[in-house]
Structures are given as C-alpha cells and as structure tokens.
Description:
This protein is of the alpha/beta class. The protein is built from twelve helices and eleven strands.
Amino acid sequence: MSTRKVLAVFCAFAGSMLAALPAAGQATKINIGYTTAADFVPTFVAKERGFFEKRNLDVTLTRIALASNVPSALVSGSLQVGMGTPPILLQAADGGLGLIAICGVSRFEKSNPMSGLVARQGVNIANAGDMRGKKVGVPGLNSFFDIMFRKWLLNNKVPLNQVTFVEAPFPQMKDLLKGGQLDAVEVIEPFRTRIVGDGTGRQVADFVSEVSGDVLGAFWMATTEWAAKNAQAIGAFREAYKEGIAYAVKNPVEAKKLEAKYLGVAGPVVPTYAAEFKPGDLEFYAGIAKELGMLRNPVDVSKLILK
C-alpha cells in the first residue's frame, strides 16, 4: 500500500473516532424526576436561574405522579436523577435495584409542619382510633408518608388491617375527598393548605411530627451505574442545588411563583431545605421498615449514600 493510501486510511479512521467522542465542553444531559411537593422548589430555581446551565448541565424537569414510580424510571434510563424517600431507597436496596442517594432535599421538623392527616368535612375522624374502617389516600404505597402514617397508627394501637390504603397523587386528593372516594388523605404543602382553605377537609393530626420531630424527608437519587460514570456532573448538580436553596430562601416571592409554575399551586409554608444528611437518618427508617415487614434482608445504609 502506498504512503498516500496509508495516510488516507489513517485519517479516515481518526476522523471516525473523533466523531464518536463527545464534543469538548458538551453539557451533561440530566432528566430529573420530581413529584408535586414544595420540597423541590430549589430545583425549579436552579433550572430557571441558570444554576445548572452555568455548570454545564443540560437539565430537563419531569413531573412524576407517584414517588413509587421513580425507581423503575431510573433503572430504565428515562430519568437520570429522581426524587427519593428513605422507604423507597431501602426497598430498592432490598430488591437489588442498585440506587444511591446523591444529594439531600428536605427535612420534616415539628417546628415547621409541612404535612398532615386531613379528613373530609363531615367524616368523624378526630384521632388515630377513628381511622378504623376508613379509607385514606396515600401518595404511593410504602412511600415516606405511607410508612410514617402506618407507624403513627401502630403507635396508637390501631391495627393496619382495619384501615384501607389507596394510592392517590397529591393534586387529585382534593377532588377525591370532595367526591367521597376517600375519607382522609396524607397530604403535603401546598395541597394541604388548598384542601383546608376552601373547607373541603380539616387537619386532624401532624402524624409525621408525632412519630419524630426531625426526620429526613426527601433526597435526590440515581442508579449506582450512572453515579459511577458521572461523578463530576453530580458534584456540579450538588453545587447548583445548594445555590438554588440559598436563592429560594433569599427570594421567597420569586420562589413561590416558580412553585406555582411547576406544581400548579403554591402554599404559604416554606419547607426545611437540607442538602446534607447522614446514614443515621436512614437507620431510623430501616427500623420502621423492619417493624412493618417491608424488608426481607438487612440493609447496610452506609452504602446507600454517595460520598
């Protein structure tokens, strides 16, 4: 083969290899799945204010109806980052799905109640005991609210088999109460304020705070495979999210406008945002999950949080 032909073949090969490589500085595409809760406002801020973009992250925000749908969306690759709660992550680990928490989102504190058990007007529910024979709407079976509510019932000596649990997305809870399909709902802001504000329902109890006055609420998670390949992007994501928290706290009016834009409604309460959390936060839930019979095997929670 002549020198000219050798050079031609080499150049063609090199060109094809370069074409297969990502362009220098190409943004990392991340589809983020969130549910309808005020906890995720800093994410909306980070998207709208360009905090993700300036860190070379091409972010798409996708609303997910139920938190329990997030793990399968992550495993399938339709989401790269998704909201998670401790019960969901623990069950995913127990089932070998390979998910890991990459950044905190929020905490539930007694001093700043964000949720509650809200009963339909006219239904006789004043305490945990009155839930016997009633139908309650939950934002995903085995979700954060579901297991905290079940723990609250057990703490108050109410057998779980005497209560009917029905999955219901937060935005639909008001209509389901009005229509009489549900007797009560486990609901979060801003939907709690909306339901109570127009008289559709009334607050019965802050069951989360009655179980614990300070608990991890939500976090962002990804598959372990994606996390291993995208350490730099995760670092940038964390920085952007923390900047989003700071901006939301300093600019509450703008933050509430974004809450309304992405959730369809905004409430008066500002969540307790928290980007950091510890294995001990997951241990608390592991104990409850064990009590409820949700886990088949012991789970090492230290391996579920990305360092």
